[in-house]
Amino acid sequence: MKTVFSAGQLAHDPRHEISDGELKPAVEIPARAEIVRARILEAGMGDILAPEEFGMAPLARVHDAGYLDFLDSFWTRWTEAGRGGEAFPFVWPVRGLRADPVPDHIDGLLGRYSFDAGTPMGEETFAAARASANSALTGARLVAGGDRAAFALCRPPGHHAAADYYGGYCFLNNAAIAAQWLRDAGAARVAIFDVDYHHGNGTQAIFYDRSDVLFLSVHADPREEYPYFLGHAEETGIGAGEGFNVNYPLAPGADWGVWSAALDAGLERIARFAPDVLVVSLGLDPYEKDPISRFRLTQDDFTRLGARLARAGLPTLFVLEGGYAVDALGVNCVNTLTGFEAG
Length: 343
Ligand code: OKP
Ligand code: ZN
What we know:
The chain starts with a strand and ends with a helix. The radius of gyration is 18 Å and the shape is globular. Helix content is 37%, strand content 14%. By secondary structure, the protein is α/β, with parallel strands linked by helices. The longest helix has 20 residues, at 125-144. 54% of the residues are buried. The protein has an eight-stranded parallel β-sheet with strand order 4-1-5-10-9-6-7-8, with helices on both faces. Strands 2-3 form a two-stranded antiparallel sheet. The site of zinc ion has 7 residues, from loops.
């Protein structure tokens, strides 16, 4: 299958993140994309294409206009306030405070348009996030044009970003933008299956009231894990979307036996939904040696994952999400994709 990736995605190159009460080295780094790219070439998996430029319109189908303005003007506002380097929010409009009116000051804007303090943002962040979204959109166009599958090598990732907030290393929701583009290109129903270790709170929120996009997620129980405030089993959708959101929270420590049972349940739900296209939010952090995660998938389990996804028999767009065991990331990613191709 073809891969879509742009060197522009490397420009977001954070130094630090706030984690465990410290300023620690960032884990969502350009080396993640480089090692995946290298492994694709080494394995001879297929061509790596540069993305096409889709402009702002497909982003605005998913994200709030004020949020996109904030991302676009962030660096100007940050430097005009006398700051440089990486920005972190520190105040949020929680229960009882007002999210409107939107503040003028950059510190207020950072809180208004984020949900965590763990996500560094710098001068090149929005440009890199746009390039990442263009990779997802180009992959979507390949699949809409008849390719059985495509791989969007997206980083920064997307699944924690909602219509009007960033967080979890995510700024633009690549999978959601691609799914909406596929709908607009004529797909009646799109399923998004999120297999990242962390719940895809942003994607869930974007499609929560809709029956045309089915969202499913297998992830660590939010009682125990980030993002803590979404991803419980009882979240099944609202209004027209009731029954079209499916969460499979698992206790930390889940191995392939436990994990693949949830995967199979999700695939059965997808079969009943009968989508035109499947979008896979491909997080590789369920890996047993991932430094920030606590599931136990092995390198061979990712091959099995790809093969099971292939059995759904659907045109499939893979969108990279998390995965922080950098040395193993290329193998785990390509195992999934070649497992799909062989399956
Ligand atoms: C993004 B993705 C651990 C800090 C964890 C947030 C994790 C974001 C994961 N001490 N910070 O879903 O892989
Ligand atoms: Zn993750």
